[in-house]
Amino acid sequence: MQSKTLGIIGGLGPMATARFLELTVRMTEASRDQDHLEAILLESPSIPDRTAYILDRSNPSPLPPIVALAKKLESLGAGCLAIPCITSHYFYDEFSAAVSVPFLNILRETAAHLKENGVSSAGVLATTGTVQAGLFQRALAEQGIRCLTPDEEHQAMVMHVIYSNVKAGLPVERELLRQAASSLRGQGAQCLILGCTELSLAKEGCGLGAGCLDALDVLARAAVLACGKPLKPQYRRLISE
Amino acid sequence: MQSKTLGIIGGLGPMATARFLELTVRMTEASRDQDHLEAILLESPSIPDRTAYILDRSNPSPLPPIVALAKKLESLGAGCLAIPCITSHYFYDEFSAAVSVPFLNILRETAAHLKENGVSSAGVLATTGTVQAGLFQRALAEQGIRCLTPDEEHQAMVMHVIYSNVKAGLPVERELLRQAASSLRGQGAQCLILGCTELSLAKEGCGLGAGCLDALDVLARAAVLACGKPLKPQYRRLISE
Fold it and tell me: What is the pLDDT of residues B32-68, one digit of tens each?
């Protein structure tokens, strides 16, 4: 397979972008610098908040800057694009149509990975924007997978961890994430999707246990493969055991 | 101070670049995505090996691609450049002269931080390219700081950790790094400089103790400040206590 340069629209949020970059390096089968993938990252944290716009259209839209960055990455030679921000995938059809190179879709990649691994029901931990817009619900339904979401009280806990802990640079209130996870397990979720890239940073030490799938891992894996790099064998299956 | 976009020449190595990006985010005083710095990263791991060229000029030079990337970053609007690779600073005069925007110098920033904190002698853990080229020796001498380097046997241990552990994606042989550190302490080093960005990744769990300064931390801190962002107070002094 031909090598491609990965184009990354980053900064949504900035810590998740750094983690995404680290994951692509970690997952690539490489024994020296020169074996790794080439990438261009446009780190643009000033892009307006995604959930704020989805919940209230009077807020500024993040779509125009995302489209501009996608076009810029394409013009700079990126052969495959990724945006390590799940809520942004609300606009996937629009921003992917603005370029002629493939744009990875974290929702579809996640649903496909669940399907491949025989998961029939999954709970989603994500922003209220992602949940209310039904992003995972639709992607999972396309694969015939049942999708469960937290009730209002537990959804508020997840948002608190994302915005008031991770994005604010403060310690993670792990008990909140554990309670939200537990409520989804109680609803019958066979697998939990960490469906916001900030939660990839929050999950450490939360003891969420087996049967978790981090969507950021899925996107990093897809990026390595799409850019024509070999994957380390231990990253073939990403659901925690 | 006016905000600037940070331009990063990355991939030398790729894991150190991801860590550098993470450090800039971690060190910025920010409570939401939009408070963070804007950046453009050109991740180019295919750039020829730096130490290989410094030790044997018949190997391909990394300088032309570094200059090309610096110019590209400037043309894309970067207002300040950084290259999170210490050995590359062998070429600092050449690549910094190729652009008209400021180019951070990890060696001078490190020496200045040692000086500010009253350090009078420091030992260097770095690649053989960095050591043989006298990069830290010169930068520290400019500040009146005595610079100690490992003997041949311990230098070989440091290179093994950098190339055969970190760059190869394998576990760090911590005992080797500990022995090299201990030999520098034995020579009278008041402070140890982690003087290769790969060592920033290797240091965890090595128990190097107090009096260590990670040059990658110094570069990240300098980048945050140079881009006009506020620094979290705990990153004012970077030498471990």
Answer: 999 999 999 999 999 999 999 999 999 999 999 999 9
Chain A residues closer than 8 Å to B232 by CB: 169
Instruction: For residue A21, give the chain B residue with the closest CA.
Output: B18
Cis amide prior to A13 (ω within 30 degrees): yes
pTM score? 0.95
Contact A39 B36 (CB under 8 A): no
Query: Nearest residue of B to residue A30 by CA position?
Result: B168
ipTM of the complex: 0.94
**Contact with chain A for residue B49, Cβ under 8 A:** yes
pLDDT band at B1 (very low <50, low <70, confident <90, very high): low
Residues of A known to be catalytic: 85, 196
For residue B43, the distance in angstroms to the closest alpha carbon of chain A comes to 5
